[in-house]
Amino acid sequence: MAEADILAARRGKLARLRAQGIDPYPYRYPRTHTVRQVRDAFGDLAPSGRSGAQVRLAGRLVALRRMGRASFADLLDRSGKVQLYASTNGLGAEGYERFVGDLDLGDIIGVEGEPFATKTGELTVDVQAFTLLAKSLRPLPEKWHGLRDVETRYRQRALDFIANEDARRLIIGRAQILRACRSYLDAHGFIEVETPLLQPLPGGATARPFVTHHNVLDRDLYLRVAPELYLKRLLVGGLEKVYEIGRNFRNEGISSMHNPEFTALEAYEAYADYEQAMELAEELVVACAMAVAGTTRISHGGRELDLTPPWRRASLLELVASASGCDVEKPLPDLVTEIERNGIPLPPPLHRGPKGKVIEHLLETCVQDQLWEPTFVLDFPLDVSPLAKRKRGKDDLVERFELYITGREVANAFSELNDPDDQRERFAAQEALRAAGDEEAQPIDEEFLRDLELGMPPAAGIGFGFDRLVMVLLDAPSIREVLAFPPLR
User: Is 0.90 surpassed by the pTM of this model?
Assistant: First the structure.
């Protein structure tokens, strides 16, 4: 049937039901079991065995095989799918005709009946009563094969979740990982906090912000690019161990790895440095892996991934020099010349530096894809790390690491800069970059500097790209797969 005919037929059924005094959208339906609970309780019945129990289930009708005086159907809820058996014996002649005549694939129904096992041993519910809970006026994907076209899947996300078990698996797994993060941090004495999404200055990360306007205050505000500066002010206030899980917004491109609206987890611990942040990263990721997989040895993209600590630690400069064949200790003009001589693409704006951005570019183009197993890339140039402490014994570097897993940057962490005079100088250098046209450079935040002058304890801070962590642990090829509603053009 053409879709228009299907829609007309379903609306015709809806009108007939209402004319008969049947509410096709009732208010509630008390369930006694989910599908999983039925399977747990009665899944070991012998072939042809009867349970003698009564259960009430509710879910979506996703298959209906009409067979004369008896029919089979499949009911799907969040926990799984179970077979239904509808017959004139269980429902009576009139009830059975309503079951096969009034119901369509996609309808949400409640059923009451006895679990039993068929001759082949398949767990089934013998339906003795049913209630239409929501009439579906639009058809499900043909033959219940699910949506194939990726663009359609993202544009019709509710239909995608109905049709594709893997789409539901990713969202449920994401929730499990989120819960595991909170459980780990709470158990280790961290306090969950919330900081402003609308900020007077876009600080805490080098990124282009979204700008909005507050009518009553008559001023522009920025959707936060990171919560870092506010979380550090809580350390100044004596909270010592804090974390936040929430949305950040960066006015950047969309790709399999980037989304302009994304979830970040940031945690800060007083009296620690980036060595402790590495330990936290290892333990937190292991806790998340155990929550969703029950093991630290998982599969990603058909390839084994071992998350068992301790993880590899490697110097950024050594990794870049080895992979690019360039002497990264050279002055910027000489380094640019060597990069071009080695045939490595370098965008023209980077020819002017800063040198740290050139080194980060080499990391992204020459090294990143090789970092399959968890790897802490250590000690970044100072000129691209305005919020981190200088590395002990090496003033042109800072104590910062990025964590890479499956070739993806998953986390970024520092020994946090708490010297207000040094921080002001770093902000001034960033302001100079902004004046030269760098829209991602950070502005001077006088309120943060004022609080920093009160005294912030030495601290470690780490920020996880939560969506990317979910991608790694749940074997998702694109960030869109782990977002309930990804943005589209």
Answer: yes
